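On clarity, I found the account of how folds are encoded harder to follow than it need be. What matters is that the chain and its backbone geometry are given together, residue for residue. The format is easy to grasp once an entry is in front of the reader. For illustration, here is how one protein appears when written out as sequence plus structure tokens.
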Amino acid sequence: SQDEVRGRPSAEVFIPLDEESAQPLESPVDQVLADGRVLSRRGQAVLRRRDGTLLPIEESAAPIRNPKTPSPE
């Protein structure tokens, strides 16, 4: 519920797992912060619900750039 997650870091609540191995994937936010590129993963990530079932998800993340700061590309 919203009350359960309010105030908690997203990394504690939103833990993407590899669809085949169920091993944790690197956080999309961490990846964007590390290399400054847009990330999109489709068909490979799942979330584990409280009851243990897996929910397929699509992830995307993008940096918010300051126009005064050069792009890392």
About this structure: The radius of gyration is 14 Å.
